Amino acid sequence: MGDGHGGGGPPPRDQPVRPTRRRGGQGACAGDGRRLSARGAPAVAPGRRGVRRGRCVRRRRAGAGARGRRHAGGGARGLRRPGPAGRLRRAAGVPAAHRSGRGGARCAAAAAPRPDAAGGDGGVRAALPALHRPAPQGRPRPRPLRPADARPRRRRPHPRRGGLAGARADLRGPGARPGARRRPGAARSGPARRAARPGGRRHGRAGAAVGWARAVTSRPIVVETLSGTPVPRQRVEIVERKGVGHPDTICDGVAEQVSVALCRAYVEAMGRVLHHNADKALLVAGRTAPRLGGGVVLDPMRLIIGDRATDAAGGRRFDVHGIAEAAARDWLRAHLRHVDPDRHVVVESALKPGSAELTDLFGRGRPGANDTSAAVGYAPLSETERLVIAAERHINGAAFQAAFPEAGEDVKVMGCRTGGVLGLTVAVAFVDRHVPTAAAYFERKEAIRAHLAARLSADLETLDAIEVDVNTLDDPSRGDGGMYLTVLGTSAEGADCGQVGRGNRVNGVIPLHRPSGSEAAAGKNPVRHVGKIYTLLSHHIARCVYAEVPGVEEAYVWLCSQIGRPIDDPWLAAAQVHPQPGARLADLAPGIEQVVARELANVEAFTGRLTRGELGVW
Questions:
Q1: Residues 146-195: tens digit of each pLDDT
Q2: Right CATH number for 247-366 from 3.40.50.620, 3.30.300.10, 3.40.309.10, 3.30.830.10?
Q3: How far is Cα 253 from Cα 618, in angstroms, rounded to an integer?
Q4: N or C: which end of the chain has fewer CB within 10 A?
Q5: Is pLDDT at 487 greater than 70 in this prediction?
């Protein structure tokens, strides 16, 4: 490594470490800033932290406020008297890497080239660095330092901590907590930057979305821009919708109807909604023998409604099984015109009482979440999504069914858009009693296809064309097996089973290009189950943001709960937006925050609409 005078070593400025002892005592501090022991000998060996580049180190003298300065040749004036400690103390609060900034011009002489012991100059040398750690040669620029004994400013209490119920406990060991190893009296880091003003503070990093954050009481609302291309402007988009007669949609519709009926019974008897969840419906397919001109039902379908419901409260008893079974039959009778719920479906209730803790949650004052759950909603619907919904609703509309009575309620529409061309594949269950011959079947199928293509083409806005195909599995050469025939107008009669949560999202579609939560909303409790409330509320807030904040092209709203936390105070509320060309997030964020905060504050009115069944979930 050498002492810097050899010809084979690196230049003085590039040496990472100097030897602790050098010829003629070079490398020792020219100003004796060390504390002497009782015998007058240095208590700290050269190269320890107390000696830094020959500069002066201030020390408070014991029992006095004045500080002594120690320089070379300063005599007793610059030295502390011998004491029992016999060691050099660090300057409180000054990090080792920064203490070199103290001393300023008063130690300039100590940094100059030094002669050797014989009186000759051993060569012009840069000021020696600290010997206890790697450091470059030479003297760095002075760094401004806070006084070691400066009193830190008082921090404001965090809005989500500081005595609030449910605050997190610090379970880290004592040595792992911030400041655990800090010396007493050491200077502390300055306070963090203040929270953003209403409207937020712009933040972000390269390649990340630029965002805003605002705290409304204990509720954080984050607003940020989304990178990438909005879904309507992407080249490919796939959207699906299952019609009212599809087995999965039947389960969603029945489960939600049962929840609404239970809510009505609870409110009439107790004045409030009690604990229940009826979101575990299962439809077991029956068995039929369809044929041209009319077939027969061999075995009925079986509909099982499960999960939990309060059957007794306040001295009153509730016939939850009778309520659930009656609600299921009412829904089937209202939506499937060819199904007789008394003959074609066996309805069975498997509801049981809920757990004590979840039941007790409904007796507390402020509505609290009964689960830790997350949800996401978006707006607006793309043109593809709107056309897919319109196609199914038109087929199951009264006017279409009057013109095409052979069309059953089991309809499935798959939309696949490439560029400006939308292709729709539609599956329609034909009711066999309205189809006398195979020729009539294929003739009516073509009439339905042409009718849909003309009807939907009139609704095109930005798309260039639409292509419609109906029942593409059909094969005229296969006889009855080459046609989509049913007895009751639904595949659940003899082919497909159904289950809650496998159908449409709460906005009516299954969008493959959108983020989606995992909760099945249908049948869940409308006043406590955040999986249901936040799923519908996130879509509602996104629609409000899009409608009320000019300059938003597309909005996504994210909500996350904590079990037991008030429903109107989510653990996280965030909005991600695609601004329209020319719009700035700084101009959009305040309005977005206001909409999110307003709708969260009105969540009780929103859950009231859910309780009355005013909001669709399929």
A1: 555 555 555 555 544 444 344 343 444 444 444 444 444 444 444 443 34
A2: 3.30.300.10
A3: 7
A4: N
A5: yes
